Amino acid sequence: MSSADGSSPLESLSQKLIRDHWDFYPTAGSRIGRHEYDGRLPDLSPDSLRRRVSSLREGLEQLRALEIGPQGSEERLSHQMLELFLQRELFTFNEMRPLENNPMRQTGFLNVGGYIRRNYAPITDRVRSATQVLSQTPEFLDVLDKALQKEVAPTVLEMSIESYSGMARFYRTDLPQALSGYSDADLDKATLSPFNGAREKAALAVDRFVDAMKSRLVKSTGDFAIGARLYSEMLATGEGLSLPLSQIIAVGQANLDANLERAKDLARQISLQHGSSQGELSVPEVVAEISSRHPSAETLIPATRDMLEDLRQALIDLDIISVPSEDRCLVMETPTYMRYAFAAMDSAGAMETQATESFYYVTPVEPDWTPTQQEEWLSNFNYDTLRIISIHEVFPGHFVHHLHNRYGAALPLVNRAATSYAFTEGWAHYTEEMMMETDYAKDETALQLTQVLEALVRNCRYMCSIWMHTQGMSVDEATRFFMDNAYMAELPAKREALRGTFDPGYLNYTLGKLMIIKLAKDWKLEQGGAFSGKRFHDQLLSYGAPPLPLVREQMLREPSGSPI
């Protein structure tokens, strides 16, 4: 039975429930490309949260009252995705309770950079929207401060203090710099004056919030660990994965062990190829040699741009995935207000109709750095690492995923609005390994080793996330684990360990990759001689980014096996 507009009951309910989500989280609506939600921050007050929880429960009841289509149908997938989408939000409010214990989860709401960098409307309109958000920031932060428990974990507070302090600098320094290229004709005083006033008031409010967190830090003895029950529920509601943690650990450990052996074997091959007079080189010694080969500060952006064209052509020549348009992402220096990122893909929102360009940001050296600092930074952009990063971020990783979503078969609304962490990051990480198995990386041992080193960092995230949150692993122990198993220096290893205290979901890079590898293996078994890697990749991306266990039900005749 259809409604008056011809849509099915599920389609009508999906549209209502997702609009309700955007009404509560207007920043999500704005960033996906629905600009009627611009200029608003969410109301996270206790009364608003109670109303939202009630609305979610009502929505779940309405959803569960509908008939579900047969296994493998688009309708069934939409129903399952929507149910998990609502369950995940309820779980976040009722169980994870980030407003009380994890200020890091709220930082992103305050980032108004998107209004400045995405040219979807005249700059005056976008600055006015940013001004509206900045004007709401003091009240928003008052709500956050009142919601915080006294016993927030010290590590989470430390990272939150750093993050919010960076947001205050962003408001004071980077935002005006981002607008410096506009003339008086583009931005008049009537627009800039309220913007600058709201910007300083917002920065002062962030300062007060930071000071309040510092006061809490002096007395805090809280624990960051969420425990085994919540960890399992996080995976069940977020990723549709319901497996014993012991099985998840065993699979992750096996992948870590395999990558450690692979790294040692590749380093041994490189030593033999180079005929080192010092005998067999260790993995760190080989990595140091690879890192010495990098672009100059002046050629970093052009070298990256040329590299992308080579990668794109390789995908076409290898015929391993469709590249569904002639679109290119624009390679540019990371804007000053985003230089906390090493490199990043900034694709247009899934429903954006105006500013549809995508940006691949590469962070350059700073002119005031010493020659030693510049060399250290550029060594991280050595040619091999830069290629692996570009595979992950652009071809065939995040950007190609975005192209399939934009130019492929029309996706239902829920497939655009509800995305899986494990699918999104797992796909990009999977493509690194997938490309190493093609002729693209044939005989390129240094490139293969670089990819394995990237995988080892994700392996360590996977293991440390579980152990820190369910088995009492300390931050110091996790730091040592990253140093020993991903060949990292102490400072970046400590940063990785600290991230795990407030982002337990960062296991999803490896978890998603492993689920895609398992799906490909099972699909190949069912397809037999009809298997095609290109057809697998195209079909996988045709669903958007649902939880991968749900994709198994779409792609496999017998989906009951373990997803990892």
Largest sheet: 3 strands, mixed
User: What share of the residues does DSSP label as strand, in percent?
Assistant: under 5%
Distinct helical segment count: 24
Stretches where pLDDT is under 50 for at least 5 consecutive residues are none
Radius of gyration, taken over Cα atoms and rounded to an integer in Å: 24 Å
Helix content: 55-70%
Overall spatial form? globular
In oligomeric terms, what are we looking at?
single chain
Q: Helix and strand succession?
A: HHHHHHHHHHHHHEEEHHHHHHHHHHH
Tell how many strands the DSSP assignment holds.
Answer: 3
Kindly report how far apart the N and C termini lie. Answer: 38 Å
| Structural class label | mainly alpha
Summarize the structure.
The chain is mainly α and 564 residues long.
Describe this structure in words.
The chain has 564 residues and is mainly alpha-helical. The protein has three domains: 1-96, no CATH class; 102-224, no CATH class; 238-511, no CATH class. It contains 24 helices and three strands. The mean pLDDT is 94.
For this entry, give a set of tags:
single chain; 564 residues; mainly alpha; 3 domains; three-stranded mixed β-sheet; 24 helices; 3 strands
Topology summary:
Blueprint: H1 9-24, H2 26-32, H3 46-64, H4 74-96, H5 98-101, H6 113-117, H7 123-147, H8 154-178, H9 189-219, H10 228-239, H11 245-274, H12 283-291, H13 300-318, E1 330-333, E2 343-346, E3 359-362, H14 371-379, H15 383-393, H16 398-407, H17 413-417, H18 421-436, H19 445-470, H20 475-486, H21 490-502, H22 508-527, H23 533-541, H24 548-555
Parallel strand pairs: 1-3
Antiparallel strand pairs: 2-3
Helix pairs in contact: 1-2, 1-3, 3-4, 4-10, 4-24, 7-9, 8-9, 11-19, 13-15, 15-18, 15-19, 18-19, 18-22, 19-20, 19-21, 19-22, 20-21, 22-24
